[in-house]
Amino acid sequence: MKPTSPRAARRQAAKFGKGALTLEELAQRVAKARVSGVDKARVERARRILTSYLQTAFAHQIPAKDVLAEMASGKAAWRLGMAVRDELMKSPPKVVQEAACAEGCAFCCILNGGEGGVITAFEAEQLHTALTPLAGQPDGRAWHPKGCPALDPDTRSCRAYDARPMICRSFISTDAAACEINAEGGKEMGAGLLGNHLDYLLVLALCRAALKGITQVQTYSLADTAALGVAGADGIADARQKTSALEIACHDALVAATA
Ligand code: SF4
Ligand code: SF4
């Protein structure tokens, strides 16, 4: 594809062509990347996680263009968030041991906030692919007007379980009754996001900052992506969020983590 402007030509060259970034240059960009408005210690923790990912890529001689693609799509953030979650689960915190979560309990799948949460392009593609074969079937909105379209309205189980995004894997509660109240706008205690979620968001924010001028790191609305999937829509472009959505999500996750 021919670049449409000198700036686009430079971006294309940096991504794929002559002068393409090396892993060392990617690591330098990560080292300098800034995420503002969030506790510095948490940003540095996410930077260490992303840096160790780059070191692993270097050790395994993964091509820099593949690493760049994973950082841009959010697959890197997703993989690293899952790795932190797996580590956490080796010695489950009290909230996990006492979780009230069970199959068919789906108050957390009532997407009250409108967009339903921030997800990466990688996750949005996965979710959309899992849901398009279900186009035309009754969905979660037949159970509750704000139900996630990925829900089965009868069993209230997720019909895209293996493709569910990080936010669905991170949300947990010790009190299903509190979740029911919160789903209608309440502020009951007992439900929240596991710590891996903030790491995932901050790694994504660092990827965005590190790749500035090369490629855009987009985020997508969970609710809109799922709605597009069950509508059989061609793609996920209409679920793309404003840049500020990731900043707001990082801020909210930090507040939730320190609450
Ligand atoms: S987070 Fe709340 S609503 Fe969701 S499964 Fe757990 S207890 Fe049920
Ligand atoms: S994708 Fe699945 S787990 Fe996530 S909100 Fe929708 S129905 Fe619930």
Automatic annotation (TrEMBL):
<protein>
    <submittedName>
        <fullName>Putative zinc-or iron-chelating domain-containing protein</fullName>
    </submittedName>
</protein>
<dbReference type="InterPro" id="IPR005358">
    <property type="entry name" value="Puta_zinc/iron-chelating_dom"/>
</dbReference>
<dbReference type="Pfam" id="PF03692">
    <property type="entry name" value="CxxCxxCC"/>
</dbReference>
